[in-house]
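HUMAN: Quick job: go over this next protein and say how the chain folds.
***
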Amino acid sequence: MRRLLIFAAIAMAGCARLDSVQIGSIDQSQGALTPVSVRLSETGFDAAASAELGRQLSRGQTSQQWKEIRDILALVNMGPRTGNPVYDENYAEQLLSFLRNECPSGELTGIRAIREAKTAGPVSGEIVAVDAFCIAEK
């Protein structure tokens, strides 16, 4: 029962993480501006954090095996990256079509691109967002 309560507490603990932000300048000379916003998300999973959780919940020899699994997974996933690996790596490719739906003229200014995550233990919601201003058609 105690292990179940510890696991539930760890799984419910969550936080938000900002990975990157890019902001462009706003050109107000081309016409009327309308704010547009598109957000896409996908579920991410941190296998090394899962192994660490297993290690904390186990004892003795099993704990050592979980530690080794955690270390191997951490080494395999080394390298430059932002966020956890996601199930569908192409989820953000739809961003351009959603922006075209929001801005019929296709002309954007003041673009702010955001990459963030909301985590709850080893599971995360990896989020890509674009906020911009659509320049009205002339």
